[in-house]
Each structure stands twice: as C-alpha cells, then as structure tokens.
Amino acid sequence: MRPGTFDTSERPFVLIWELTQACGLACDHCRADAQQRRHPDELSTAEGMTLLEQAAEFGDGQLVVLSGGDPLVRDDVADLIAHGDDLGLRMTITPSGTGSLTADRIESMADAGLKRMAVSLDGASPESHDAFRGEDGSFEETIRAAEDARAAGLPVQVNTTVCRQTVDELPAIRDLLTEIGAVMWSVFFLVPVGRGRILEPVPPERADAVMEWLHEVSETEPFGVKTTEAPQYRRVAMQRRADGDETDDGAADPGDGIKRRTGIVAGDGFAFVSHTGEVFPSGFLPESAGNVRERPVTELYRESELFRSLRDRDNLSGKCGACPYRHVCGGSRSRAFAHTGDPLASDPLCPFVPEGYDGPLPWDDTDGKTRGVSSGD
Ligand code: SF4
Questions:
Q1: Does the pLDDT of residue 367 top 50, yes or no?
Q2: Any domain includes 333
Q3: Ligand 1 neighbour 235 (Cβ under 6 A)
Q4: Ligand 1 pocket check for 264: Cβ under 6 Å
Q5: Which residue's alpha carbon is nearest to atom 2 within ligand 1?
Q6: Looking at the DSSP assignment, which residues form a beta bridge with residue 156?
Q7: Cα separation of 262 and 269, whole Å?
Q8: What is the CATH number of the domain that holds 57?
Q9: Owning domain of residue 222
C-alpha cells in the first residue's frame, strides 16, 4: 500500500447504513422501492448503536452515511449521530427533500456532530425536479433545507442521478450548486434496480462525455465532484492526463475533511447495511454476505467470500477482466449484476474496449453496437 492510500481490504471508504425504507416520496430512481411504513424488522436503536460500535472498529474517522428511505422518518437520528461522533466516526446523512427536514432537525443533527448533509437535485427547476421525485414542492423544500444546513454550519453535498431524463439539466444543476454553496457534487449514474428500472440510462459514449465534462467542472467550480457507480471516471481522468491534462483525478477535499478516492467499487471500499441488517457490497447489489445481528460488519467486510471475490480485480470477466484500468476502475459491479446476475461481469455503461480484446461485449445482446467504439491506451 502506498503511503497515504487507503487499504480497502481492511476497511471501506464509505459505509452506508439504510436506517429505514420508509419515505414520503415516490422517486422514479428509488433503489429502495421506498415504502410508506417502517419495516417491523428494522434494526432498533440499540442494534444501531451496536452497529456503529462495530463500524468504529474499522478505524478512526470511518465515514458513515445514514440513508434510506428517508432516515428522518426515525426519531433516533440525532442520538445515533451523537453516538457515532463520540466513537470517532465521521457521520453524514442523505435525508429526503420532504417536510421532515425542518430547520430544527437540521440544527439538532449539526449539534449532535453531523459532518455533512446531502440533498438530492435531479432537475434544475421545480417542474423537472418535482416530476422526477414524484412530489410537488420537493424542489423548494430541498433548496430551503440546503440553506438551513448552511445556516447551521453544515457542509452541503448535492446528489444527482444521471439518466436520459436528467442529463440535459446537468449544466443548470451545476449552476445551482454554486448558488447554494455546496461543497461536493455526487453524480450517480443510474443502475436499473428498484423503481429505477423505469428510467433509461444514458448510452455509453454519452456517459464518457458526461464524465469528461464533470472533470472540467471539478477544475473550474468551487465544489468537488465525485461519481457513484461510475468508477470509469478515473479511467477518463487517466486518459485526459495521457492527452496532456495534468490535473488531479479526483481525491477532492472540499474543506470538511471528507476526501473521496475515485475508483472504489461495491465491496472494495464500499459496503451497505440494509434496514434489516443485511450487509451488501452496495445498495444496488443486493447479495448478502451475512447479517450484523449474527456477525460484525467488520468481519463480513474483511472475510466474507463475496466481498473478497469482489476485491480481487483479477476475478473480473469479459472486457473489464482484460482491461488495463481494472485496478483503478473495475467498472460498476452493481450495474454488471443488474444486467447479467453476475457481479464480476463487464459494466455495460463503459464504451472502452481494451486493445486486442476479442471476447464478448456487454452490449452485444442489448443494442446491437459493434466493437471498437473506443481505443486502448
Ligand atoms: S472496461 Fe471495465 S475496467 Fe476498463 S475502464 Fe471500462 S469499466 Fe473500467
């Protein structure tokens, strides 16, 4: 391991805990297929406290993201944040843009030790955002919540889903980030699971063009940029450097101490604990390594066969397995799983074809594209 790098066989860069699947919204892209009511078998407050104690065993400063559903459906969130903060965890949250996200609750989470709050913007106007989220007024609530967070001294991250329905809004959403003073833009490239199956992904060449553009944004805007379920963002950065662009490839530090190394994939730098305690490589790869009620999350992450196999990039098949970028990228394991049922298959979002590779291409069976859409390095 290089000095200053992160040993992802020992600890995830990001540990997400889905506090609940309950949520008042019905967003088109919802991974969780959010429900109106809380599940009776959700991890309790005491079990959640134990989970946080397990997470602290990963090491000092472990990043924990409280997600949902809408985590604020639960009334123990501030207590969980305070406990995590006491344990030395870096606690962050991704609430839904609903009326539950009041200025009082934001302030109580900030007081409890929250380090960053993420809000979702999938459109740059009330019309486009609210249509995507399935709730009139969501856009205004989200902008208001971002302002309240800043007033409470909380750094704000904006999460955006990239798909055919949203991609043309990205430049206007970028402008909004500057207006609301966000520190980070997390750009999620659609994985067709849950309600997201009704959305259309962008084609591979467009995805690469968006990633090129995002690198330019990261160089010119005051906020950092990271991608989710698109580790080829790092391959794009390396190709830019090979073309003479010497800029950094994405370990952005937006000023709240939460750096993001690009190139992490499900099970390798990333782990997800479901509302009932199942440990998945990501929220978009619902294969369980076990349950935190039976084995600590540290053991499941470090020792389970599922996670170990995902961390060995030489296990990858198809063009990802033959790719010279597999150790810095590796492709979205979640998207490979969603398309083929095999988490080690190739990521169909990536247009890159390694030089000399003559095996099957992930899009051969889907849209009839032909080999050679991108050249090797
Ligand atoms: S082929 Fe796979 S490993 Fe190579 S850049 Fe594309 S997604 Fe990444």
A1: no
A2: no
A3: yes
A4: no
A5: 320
A6: 117
A7: 10
A8: 3.20.20.70
A9: 14-303
